[in-house]
Amino acid sequence: MFPRDFAWGAGTSAYQIEGGWQADGKGPSIWDTFCHEKGGIFGNQNGDVTCNSYELWEKDLECIQQLGLTHYRLSLSWARLLPDGTTRNVNQKGVQYYNRVIDDLLACNVSPMVTLYHFDLPQAIQNLGGWKSPGVATLFDSYSKFCFQTFGDRVKLWITINEPHVCARLGHEVGIHAPGLKEKGTAAYLVGHNMLRAHAMAWHSYNSEYRATQKGAVSLALNSDWFEPLDPLRHEDVASAERDLAFTLGWFAWPVFITGDYPELMRSAIETQSKMMGYSGNWRLPRFLKEDPPILGTADFFALNYYTSRKVKSGGCCGQMLSMKRDLDAEEVLDPSWPISGMSWLAVVPHGLRKLLKYIKDVFNNPTIYITENGFAQVGPLQIEDVERCKFYRSTISEVVKAIEEDGVNVRGYFAWSLMDNFEWADGFSVRFGLFHVDFSGAELSRTIYQSGREYSKIISKYKSAQSGCQGFLDDDY
Ligand code: GBH
């Protein structure tokens, strides 16, 4: 059974849904630049308009109400609020927009969970070096304080940074996300480091300046697959799976939840590769300095984005150059029994979520966990009757029930990704994650509920009525 105050939510992010990329004084972000200049996005698409939530927020609110959500997770566009990234210039129109969203949600009895940063750095800050530059942490801290000050009387759940792993790796190592850098084996570690410093500064600011009056909670959202050894009897596979967990979840979760520093496994793997390539010492994975804000303990809950699982075996690397892949020295494969959703990376493995939750409980000292993202993609011909996705949500949520009831994991919320179809980064509009379909070919951008939206809404209302002691719960099957 779910705890009484369990959060039933759905999520979106600013660049993926808002549009209005130049409206009312918004500054450009690295995603505006990346889509307009670098190409590489499916069909040359961009988020200039996307769901146009900047103008159509009421439509989103109707969707939220139709689902019966208790929580809605959205992100703020830093450059909409602070066009040049600094608090020297505040865009009041941006403040008004988010005030309205937050007030409308609360008026409908929906609690906002607000992410400060979901991939869309103000271009002005990129021009100063972006996340590679240590100074970004101070700018992020000022932006965060501005948001706590402006919205924190009403927002009680905060995520500082969404998926530092994805920003670092896809943005600075692989280059398929903004800002599109491919500085293999170096930049991602620096970016991850500055993201942790930025997060920690913001958490400390909240802790010392706002917590007493605002009484909210702050964390960062970490994405991880569940990794397990291809052959559990092979020592190399077991070690590779452990390394993969350390490089994905551990990279950020160890510093914040266990030691204040990176996993030893990660440090030694990087050092080994540096040496093999003829470099001395561990110069790629930075160390936290005395001047840095302490990282340990800077999360009031554990926010997990889970999508899929991998089997891992040793080896599989790769060329004569430094790279994260080389450092990781592990090969990820799919189990043939796992169905694939619309996207090749997204194998459907609901039981992997249960295992990952148990792992987090055991390794990171039994934290309160919010599943801040989880979802299923549709590609190809539109199916409003999306039976596979209905099954996906049912079985995923039943795995969460098992994690709570049988493994004693302290899960406090579940956020489906996403409220509606939106701009799926490098995949543009070719991939649909929504509980609502959005008609991007029509001027109205009309939202239509998928069958999976109805299904999720039924699940929510069953659990809600069970919690309030109504009859009729016992004969349901999830
Ligand atoms: C989330 O990240 C994002 O937070 C969200 O904005 C997005 O819409 C959602 O996923 C759906 O994609 O190296 O090319 O094989 C999810 C974590 C990690 C999933 C990287 C894709 C591998 C892509 N992502 N992963 S690739």
Automatic annotation (TrEMBL):
InterPro entries referenced in this protein's UniProt entry, alphabetically: GH (IPR017853), GH_1_N_CS (IPR033132), Glyco_hydro_1 (IPR001360), Glyco_hydro_1_AS (IPR018120)
Keyword list, A-Z: Glycosidase, Hydrolase
Record's keyword annotation contains Hydrolase: yes
Active site, UniProt feature: E373
Similarity comment: family membership: Belongs to the glycosyl hydrolase 1 family.
Name by which UniProt lists this protein: Glucosidase, beta, acid 3 (gene/pseudogene)
